[in-house]
């Protein structure tokens, strides 16, 4: 299904900013204020799209944006500025081409509810983030048990074109070292949420009694 999304985002690329930029600008700015101090950090943007986050990113870090769709990456490339150190890669967020624990923080704006297997995308983010690093999520999720009949009804079609509307964040598994730091409503009565996860250091409590 990723290939279907690649086709649809190729078609959406020329109009994506006109549809998405203005309604999400303040919200994505607010989301990015939740980053830790970014000085000298390396930060990954999963599903970077056309780079609508770029104007809101704090300076001082090295950013890497990955996306499946070359047409979206081309738009992101046009949005690059010299003040922001940014590299762009084509790739799949469900199979990130990076080693374990190599990013200080991860940004996942409007991607977990887009990919066909959000659990795989989250697993990959949790794998590549370093201990102490945050995963900043801005996305639309249903609550566990929420009926939302229209969103569930349209999901089979719209999930193939642009985005899923049936992802329940609470159904995604996290290992013990990943803590939910915050979960707040963002847009549309809390359909869109600001969620922050943190990968903590797990200390093996080895006490020796001599
Ligand atoms: C709704 S847009 C979000 C873009 C951007 N993060 C934003 O906030 O505007 C979803 C993006 O995910 C990309 N995408 C879809 N499936 C992907 C995958 N499996 N791996 C990487 N990117 C993917 C699409 O090409 C598109 O650019």
TrEMBL record:
It holds the Pfam family Methyltransf_11. SUPFAM superfamilies: S-adenosyl-L-methionine-dependent methyltransferases. It comes from the Bacteria. This is Methyltransferase domain-containing protein. GO terms for biological process: methylation. GO terms for molecular function: S-adenosylmethionine-dependent methyltransferase activity. Residues 46-137 form the Methyltransferase type domain. Keywords: Methyltransferase, Transferase.
């Amino acid at each position: 299904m990723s290939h279907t999304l690649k086709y649809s985002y190729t078609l959406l690329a020329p109009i994506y900013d006109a549809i998405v930029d203005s309604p999400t600008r303040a919200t994505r700015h607010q989301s990015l204020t939740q980053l830790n101090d970014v000085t000298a950090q390396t930060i990954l943007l999963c599903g970077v799209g056309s780079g609508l986050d770029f104007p809101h990113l704090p300076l001082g870090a090295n950013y890497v944006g990955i996306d499946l769709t070359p047409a979206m990456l081309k738009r992101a490339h046009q949005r690059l500025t010299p003040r922001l150190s940014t590299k762009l890669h084509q790739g799949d967020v469900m199979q990130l081409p990076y080693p374990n624990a190599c990013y200080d923080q991860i940004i996942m704006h409007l991607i977990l509810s887009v990919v066909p297997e959000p659990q795989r995308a989250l697993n990959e983010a949790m794998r590549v983030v370093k201990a102490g690093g945050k995963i900043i999520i801005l996305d639309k999720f249903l609550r566990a048990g929420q009926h939302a009949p229209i969103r569930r009804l349209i999901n089979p079609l719209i999930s193939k074109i642009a985005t899923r509307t049936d992802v329940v964040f609470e159904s995604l598994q996290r290992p013990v070292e990943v803590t939910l730091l915050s979960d707040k409503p963002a847009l549309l009565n809390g359909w869109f949420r600001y969620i922050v996860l943190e990968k903590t250091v797990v200390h093996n409590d080895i006490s020796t009694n001599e």
